[in-house]
Amino acid sequence: MHPMPWNALALALGLTVSAGAQAQDHAHHKHLPSTQQAHAATPATPPPAHADHAGHAAHAADTANKPAPPATPAMEHAHMGHATPKADAAGHFDMNHGAMDHGSMNHGSTDHAAMGHGAAGTSAQPLAPIPVVTDADRAAAFPELKLHMEHASEVNSLVMFNRLEGWDADHGSGQAWEAQAWIGTDLNRLWLRSEGERSDGHTESADLEVLYGRSVSAWWDVVGGIRRDFKPGGSQTWAAFGVQGLAPYKFEVQATAYVGESGKTAASIEAEYEVLLTNRLVLQPLVEASLYGKDDPRRGIGSGLSTAEAGLRLRYEFTRRVAPYIGVVHERAFGRTADLRTAGGEATRDTRMVAGVRIWF
User: Fold this and answer.
1) Beta bridge partners of 307
2) N vs C: which end of the chain shows fewer Cβ within 10 Å?
């Protein structure tokens, strides 16, 4: 066996020591964290071209020793000015902290209400109640309505010919009227009422009433005064009192009682209704009845129910003040009055077609 040269022996011994050191270094490198592994793999004496890696290692170690900053609410990093970090050839990330816009990050004053996390809280104070509406409030809100709701202080007047008509029948022609007028306020009025009939140029009946009327409700007046009969027979005077107004279902009603000379008494009741067929075409039914307490042969009047008249008139209002009409009227006598008419050669009932005009001003 040839003796081993000293050079070969030294080379073998150096390789063995180097292999053991590398194995130990790999075993130690295996247990380091991933960040430290990257720095451990760096040579102890780096070449001059990579001298700045030592600064990065110091910065990484200093960052690892510092406590982590507190977590902030869900921040929108797109608005923080961070650029996406890029890794260099050695695996290091350049965060470029100097380019970050930390002033716009506003970590301490996050607007949670704008983020939708705020909930509507209940007010500690109770809601103010709605104030009660007073008469002063109504007057201020509706000044014109307030004026219409109050009683008018000025004096008003009205003249109306409810019936001004004529007819032509086999036994002769005739005319009739029914009129009323008033002057005064809403509460107090002076009333004039007149009704009459003519036949073949002779006045068969005519009367005039002068009454004081006082409003007792929104729809009714009480009246009192005198009535003067001119026909039939001689003139006579009656004391009159009654009511007039609008009954339920819009019936216009007049009911008047009379007290005359020698204890005579009488009463009349009239009711009419207006059916609005169109805005201008109006159908008006009317019923009127007369009663007397005693017989009066001079005037052809008997006690009890004396006469009754029913009419149906259809008018067209060209204007509200002037309205021509046509209609049919039926009149009948009852009881003692019918007997007196029969004895005098007069008919006890009559039906006629009428035409006329209704006027008011």
Assistant:
1) 290, 333
2) N
**Which residue type occupies 54?**
A
DSSP string for 158-211: EEEEEEEEEEEETTEEEEEEEEEEEEE-SSEEEEEEEEEEEETTEEEEEEEEEE
Please give the tally of structural domains in the chain.
1
In a domain, 348, yes or no: yes
Query: Is residue 46 within 8 Å of residue 71, measured between CB atoms?
Result: no
Q: Which amino acid is at 53?
A: H
Assign residue 172 the CATH number of its domain.
Answer: 2.40.160.40
Structural domain includes residue 301: yes
Confidence of residue 354 (pLDDT cuts 50, 70, 90): very high
Better-predicted residue by pLDDT, 129 or 240? 240
Under the phi-then-psi rule, with left for phi > 0, alpha for psi from -120 to 50, and beta for the rest, what region is 29? alpha
Domain span holding position 327: 156-360
Q: Which of 38-47, 164-173, 221-230, 294-303 has the highest mean pLDDT?
A: 221-230
8 A C-beta contact, residue 316 and residue 325: yes
Which pLDDT score, from 0 to 100, does residue 32 have? 42
Give 120's contacts (C-beta < 8 A, 6+ positions apart): none
What are the pLDDT digits (tens) for 11-25? 444 444 444 444 444
Residue 76 has pLDDT above 50, yes or no: no
Q: At which residue do the structure tokens 């009480």 appear?
A: 222
What is the enclosing helix (H) or strand (E) of 349?
strand 349-360
134 falls within a domain: no
Sign of torsion, CA 234 235 236 240?
Answer: positive
Strands 202-215 and 220-231: antiparallel
